Amino acid sequence: MPSEFDFIQSLRQHSQLPGVVVGIGDDCAVLEPLAQRWLVTTDLLTEGVDFLLAEATPEAIGKKAMGVNLSDIAAMAGVPKFAVVAVALPRHPPGGMTTRALADRLDAGVREMAARFGVAIVGGDTNTWDQGLVISITLIGESTARGPVLRSGAKLDDAIFVTGPLGGSLLGRHLSPEPRVREALALHQIVDLHAMIDISDGLTADLMHILEESHFGADLDSMSIPIHPDAVLRSAITGQTPLHHALHDGEDFELIFTVSQADAEKLTGQFPRIGTITDTGLTLDGQPLTPRGWVHEV
Amino acid sequence: MPSEFDFIQSLRQHSQLPGVVVGIGDDCAVLEPLAQRWLVTTDLLTEGVDFLLAEATPEAIGKKAMGVNLSDIAAMAGVPKFAVVAVALPRHPPGGMTTRALADRLDAGVREMAARFGVAIVGGDTNTWDQGLVISITLIGESTARGPVLRSGAKLDDAIFVTGPLGGSLLGRHLSPEPRVREALALHQIVDLHAMIDISDGLTADLMHILEESHFGADLDSMSIPIHPDAVLRSAITGQTPLHHALHDGEDFELIFTVSQADAEKLTGQFPRIGTITDTGLTLDGQPLTPRGWVHEV
Predict the structure, then answer these.
(1) Which residues of chain B have a CB within 8 Å of the CB of A11?
(2) Conformation bin of residue B74: beta by default, left when phi > 0, alpha when psi is -120 to 50
(3) Between A40, A114, A128, which is nearest B4 by CB?
């Protein structure tokens, strides 16, 4: 089985050219020769994997496609600015919808989300074919004067926070991400954000990206991890604990971030503090914890 | 039947935000708040429409995907700089190829083309699904100090040039575009380029974009239109004249550009001069000419 990381891994070495401050390997690329530094991110969603056209409305798919990109900009504490949108539309959408109606409704979802975050859609490419719906968005953002927040900046004894409750997004929340753009920008002014990432693969899997890039470990506190009501509902279906879903489910699109102990005090009562950066390894209440779905990047 | 222009048309009005000098409607978007102005373009290719995986090598598909984007940057006389690459890979490619091998070979084609033009690949998204291959590339380029060359700048009595022979690309040339990036930059230094576009839909269809945006007409000289040997070969198959194929076939990826009569003299013998900008209408040797596949944009 091919790993989806391979292609990116292979591209990574080719992003080291002048002007590229951060190439592949973080939430966004950071480009140098700009007023501030600019951020670029891309996400492609496919029918049957990221959404079911028979279940999700086209508007929701459009919103999700823009939302996951906004979440990547949020994860750098950047300001989203410009997007290009490329789609492959099925000639015969399910449920008797016309291709035109599908395009219009998808478009409406993309635009609604873009408008909410002040994003200008500056380009696009529309294609029709005989297969499933694909939507690919590239989002360009600006980093603030404080610079982009990378995955690699966590420090020993940092406090680990998360922006909201986790788990069970599969019940429907995964289709309506609330990208934490404003939260990230506000945090970036109040505290010195050491490392940050958005949760797409799951709390443990995405925290591991911070730990790998920062060369540290983490201990999580099970009692502090905010559990979404959907995690409880999922739990009733799967037989796993709600905590299990909060730890391992993906597509929450909340942010994980780390700050110094001093800065952590400023955030008390505002965001749940879920753990501490340690020397090595990932633990839960001091016991070894295996991140689900984690592929170790060599 | 939905027109592929509708989606873009609908997005166009949403690209008018501060910082967007040119949004949707030209070959690239032009973004303001940069050292020079920056150019952004996106193209998505689908199996069965833009290529047949059973016929084209994955390397060629990768090269084409990067090439069509490079051609858009060339059409603005820009310098290509950064790209992001998103793919949807079939879980079971035709011909017994593994998904991994397909990804690697596609990647090799993308990288080869990027390297040839000094492009840094700064991001990507790899997905696997049960349907056909899709590759979507967004390319960011820098405009030179002379500024980007738009479609809207043609002037009455301008000479119309093309950078190379046309027609019959379907025989295979459409898979190995030679983006005219260097030619465009050289021309941009020698003459004052009034309007420029790359030929993706066909000479007449793409020239019409210049005419519509510039609010002029054109008269083409049938004897001066450079005919590619492939147009002659196609002619033998289709029964159409070679000139017909040169006028109407798509995916040549040569550039059409217009310059003043004075500048035209500097280019004599270097590029074929194929016509003149007139007050209105499109004619060939003075006779009305209908652009093939042309959809009038209201």
Answers:
(1) 85, 107, 110-111, 121, 124
(2) alpha
(3) A128
Q: CA angle, corner A164, sides to A161 and A166, nearest 5?
A: 100
What is the residue type of B107?
A: D
Provide the b/e sequence for A71-92 (b: ≥16 CB within 10 Å).
Answer: bbbbbbbbbbbbbbbbbbbbee
pLDDT score of B163 = 96
CB contact under 8 A, B4 and A121: no
Dig out the tokens for B255 from the structure. Answer: 């550039």
CA distance A161 to A267: 9
- Torsion of Cα atoms, B276 then B282 then B284 then B289, to 10°: 170
Alpha carbon A182 to chain centroid, angstroms: 14
Q: Which helix (H) or strand (E) holds A243?
A: helix A242-248
- Cβ-in-10-Å burial (0-12, 13-18, 19+) of A17 comes to middle
> Is residue B255 classed as helix, strand or coil in its secondary structure?
strand
pLDDT at A8: 42
C-alpha to C-alpha distance for B16 and A34, rounded to whole angstroms: 21
In chain A, which residue's Cα lies nearest the Cα of B43?
Answer: A125
Q: Which residues of B11-43 are buried (b: 16+ CB within 10 A; e: fewer)?
A: bbebbebeebbbbbbbbbbbbeebebbbbbbbb
Helix (H, G, I), strand (E, B) or coil at A236: helix
Instruction: Give the C-alpha separation, B203 to B218, whole Å.
Output: 12
B19 and A131 within 8 Å at the Cβ level: the answer is no
- Which of A34, A40, A121 comes nearest B11 by C-beta? A121
Tens digit of pLDDT for each residue in B229-284? Answer: 999 999 999 999 999 999 999 899 999 999 999 999 999 889 999 999 999 999 99
Report DSSP state, residue B34.
B
Helical axes A99-116 vs A58-74, angle rounded to 10°: 30
Q: Note whether A275 and A161 are within 8 A (CB).
A: no
Under 8 Å between Cβ of B167 and B246: yes
**Phi, psi dihedral angles at A271 (to 5 degrees):** -135, 145
ipTM of the complex model = 0.83
pTM for this prediction: 0.85
Percentage of residues in chain B having pLDDT higher than 90: 61
Angle, in degrees to the nearest 10, between helices A58-74 and A181-190: 20
